[in-house]
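Reagents: none. Just compute today. 3-oxoacyl-[acyl-carrier-protein] synthase 2.
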Amino acid sequence: MKQRVVITGLGVMTSIGRDLETFWGSLMAGKSGVSEIEAFDVSEYPTRIAASIKDFNPEEYVDKKEARRMDRFVQFAVAASLNALKDANLNVKEDTDPERVGVYVGSGIGGLSTWEEQHKILLEKGPKRVSPFFIPMMIANMGSGQISMITGAKGPNSTAVTACATGTHSIGDSFKMIMRGDADVMICGGAEATISPTGVAGFCALRAMSTRNEEPSKASRPFDVDRDGFIMGEGAGILILESLEHAKKRGAHIYGEVIGYGMSGDAHHMTDPDPDGAARCMSKAIRDAGIEPSQIDYINAHGTSTPVGDKSETTAIKAALGEHAYKVAVSSTKSMTGHLLGAAGGVEAVICSLALQNGIIPPTINLDNQDPECDLDYVPNVPREADLHIVMSNSFGFGGHNATIILKKYEA
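Predicted 3D structure written out:
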């Protein structure tokens, strides 16, 4: 028998909140987390703004020695996971069989700042001064590895690295693991920390980011005619997924149920999205969920605020949903959080879970002059109360990696 899979815990690390109450309050207030980059000198960069997390102290979650052996993206992954487990009221070692608890937390890029620091040491001081922790700090799977070591989770342990689709792939794969009986609980999502000299320089070279440096809070403007690129964010989004049987047995609070997962490849271009690939991905998720397109009440769009990407996703939604595309509410919360790359899907799945629970759709802020080629209902600027039963979250990554998950209001 296939297991039903429910969401019992949520954790976030973002520029607009590091706890659920603050995070949701910021979304409802339409608050932007974008500001000038302070971590390094950006005076020569075309883009000098990002959705940075300020005043993050990893020692609130792990001891100083452990924190020093983690890249910033791993620190975010661990912090959000511990918060999600606390939200789920679940202690892995005491409340369940640790061998039935897995971890699947991805990162699109991994430990970029560690790489930069150690490369500088190599050039300036020679190979003997490179840290023995360089490789284990930098590799993308270390988020999952450290979470496992800290929590005691001994079940399936893996990592997705699919650019901006990473977080959603991690959640979708975890959903399937529980469904087929490989685990009872999965700690899953994504983490990213690439607001660094090389990371920002690389995306600037791609001409993918906004240069609206004088108006940081208005720079991320998905579906707006004046959008000029995405804003890089950092942080993590983590979900605790459980089999319904396991969750009910321990009396867990249930935010919602995961019912569908789709994935596809564009087979098209490194960075230029093909709407056909995204449309096929959404259609696969709809079929997997066993629903009709007309049953979807809300879509949390990938919606990065790039001229090409937003138009492509709009085309894809129309192809996948047909006439219902004009009736469904769509919003891009990246207008507030920035684009967290590999962590985006995790954060946005948290948002979808909270939207289901609260019956409120978060807005797309800065949507002042809607692009005529982006002609759907993007919930501009203010949140909207809605009777939500089924919601969809899209994530599309460089390389043509597409992932979609579908969540449903929990019904016993």
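The two ends are 17 Å apart (CA to CA).
Action item: order primers for follow-up constructs.
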